[in-house]
Amino acid sequence: MTHLKNLLIFVPEITPRIKYTFEFIFHTILGVEVGYTANQNDFIQSQLPKINYSSANFSSGLFMKAHSLLFEKSISKQEITEIESMQLRMFFPSSNDSFLPFDPFACVFYLLTRYEEYLSETTDDHERFSDSENILVKLGLHQKPVVDELAYLIAEKISTQFPEFKNGNRTFQFLTTIDIDNAWAFKNKSLAVSLGAVLKAAIHGQFGELRQRFAVSLGLQKDPYDTYKFIFETYDGLADHLQFFFLIGNRSSYDKNISHKNKAFRQLISHISIQCEVGIHPSYASNHKPWKFEKEKERLEDITQKTVTQSRQHFLKLRFPHTYQNLLKSGITDDYTMGFASLAGFRAGTCTAFPFFDLSRNRNTELMIHPFQFMDVTLKNYLQLNPEKAWQLISEIMQEVKKVNGTFISLWHNESLGDSGQWADWQKVFKQMTETALTLENEQS
Length: 445
Known about the structure:
CATH topology of the largest domain: TIM Barrel
Distance between the termini: 14 Å
CATH superfamily of the largest domain: Glycoside hydrolase/deacetylase
Shape: elongated
Order of helices and strands: EHEHEEEEHHHHEHHHEHEHEHEEEEHHEH
CATH architecture of the largest domain: Alpha-Beta Barrel
Radius of gyration: 24 Å
Largest sheet: 5 strands, parallel
Strand content: 15-25%
Number of domains: 2
Number of helices: 15
CATH class of the largest domain: Alpha Beta
């Protein structure tokens, strides 16, 4: 995207929060280079399209009465007052002479930084921020990329007053991510684990599983979690649209993958890492014990012979700011955890990658957050959708991403693509999603 320097911003003080928010809206989404000034006379005399973001209206350029949020340095409970305008329910009221009745810059900062997650005292069973507490869920806006929509709305307001204002054009993109929590259902497990599973299945009368287990062990049937061939055949020539995350921690209550020492598992990881991007899927326990993450990262690097810089938390466990601070210390540059566990949509209100702003230190960081829009388990288990209804919701969300030419990111597991048992017919959904996303991507080329 070509970046054009054609906008001047007046602010009484250029704070880290100001730079973070305006750079994301104008540079990242709109492809516009902005200049800043704290000099009132320079601003008034400038012939550039311009925005006055302060408390005083100079009757020059677009005026937005600034909320205090972007000039603060600490974290404090914010008063949320709903404002309805142009079919948008937003918050942080502005003034009658502002170009919008709410402050879009404060709203964007609040959403991107996950401000509310720093202050929340309630969590779910996995110590995660409850999706129902998300402000966008409360406003009924979680299935729209409102941050991106606000950016284009701001651009429209600027163009109305300054017809010469032009923003860049970006294109729709998509990325399909696969979490490998358990590489195989039955194959390549230790004798102790296999015997324990057989005993458990027998006690609970799960004879179908026992038959399937023995059929796999005798080579009469394919392991139900061995869906790698299907994934790569679906993405033939599209490997740059695929990304895998491997759980490689020690076995525990929530970490059930094959041992990192297992030869077949190591070969699988190595083979996939040659074809596409591979990242770490930190174990459940590592979120509270960062040294475990370091060990797991070293294991993956040893197998792939590549530096690991990409990560997604197991069970989407995120604690602000600790999780991201730990990832930064460990050399992770890109994280893919930002999404709902129990809903589909936009947890941070955007379908555009954005940097982690550490509110506890009031500064921008080098860690890029790549938000995803849905997870397979969410659609089937939390929302209890059948494949047909799931595809309908996926399609609707994909169209919302296309409207703002953002990046559509989905989260799947190898086990959900086995096309049997509880996951029967979900391969079809995976194929439909891929074909539709590819069509949308090709339409613009």
